[in-house]
């Protein structure tokens, strides 16, 4: 689970559909983020990004073959390294595993950049949506 640098490894997805970005609330409900989670042993970053998009936001789609980048963030005294993929959403369900825990919104790229606190994630969204 940890990288050689001691970071906890995570993977996430920037979900896009019709020039909008899907954001979800963080686990504590206080911030807007993209779906992401720890990479379990035996799973790839891409597999994790797809499953987190489903579990946290009810999204299905096509994942970019390569990550758009990565960023670091700290939480509860731990540092996380998040590898992020672009997800072209083909289906957004009305019900999903974490629907009771998280809210989901579709916003413009500019609004997403305003809503997200983490500078590293904002930079990735800006770069990835410029390429999309």
Q: Could you give the distance between the termini?
A: 30 Å
Structural class, from helix and strand content? alpha+beta
Please count the helical segments: 3
Helix content: 25-40%
CATH fold category name: Nucleoside Triphosphate Pyrophosphohydrolase
CATH architecture: Alpha-Beta Complex
Largest sheet: 8 strands, mixed
Number of strands: 8
CATH H level: which superfamily?
Nucleoside Triphosphate Pyrophosphohydrolase
Report a brief summary of the structure:
By secondary structure, the chain is of the alpha+beta class. The chain has helices at 45-57, 109-115, 119-131, and strands spanning 8-17, 20-25, 32-33, 36-38, 59-63, 69-75, 78-92, 104-108.
Keyphrases for this structure?
single chain; about 130 residues; alpha+beta; Nucleoside Triphosphate Pyrophosphohydrolase; 8-stranded mixed β-sheet
Written account of the structure:
By secondary structure, this protein is of the alpha+beta class. The chain has a single domain (8-131), classed as Alpha-Beta Complex (Nucleoside Triphosphate Pyrophosphohydrolase), CATH 3.90.79. Helices cover 25% and strands 40% of the residues. It has three helices and eight strands; from the N terminus they run ββββαββββαα. The longest helix is centred in the middle third of the chain and has 13 residues, at 45-57. The radius of gyration is 14 Å and the shape is globular.
């Amino acid at each position: 689970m940890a990288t050689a640098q001691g970071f906890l490894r995570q993977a996430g997805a920037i979900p896009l559909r019709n020039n909008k970005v899907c954001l979800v609330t963080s686990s504590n409900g206080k911030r807007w983020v993209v779906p992401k989670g720890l990479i379990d042993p035996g799973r790839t970053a891409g597999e994790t990004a797809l499953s987190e998009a489903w579990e946290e936001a009810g999204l299905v789609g096509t994942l970019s073959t390569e990550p758009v980048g990565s960023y670091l963030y700290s939480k509860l005294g731990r540092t996380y390294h998040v590898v992020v993929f672009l997800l072209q959403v083909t289906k957004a369900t009305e019900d999903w595993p974490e629907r009771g825990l998280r809210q989901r919104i579709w916003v413009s790229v500019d609004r997403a950049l305003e809503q997200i606190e983490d500078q590293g994630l904002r930079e990735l969204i800006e770069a990835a949506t410029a390429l999309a």
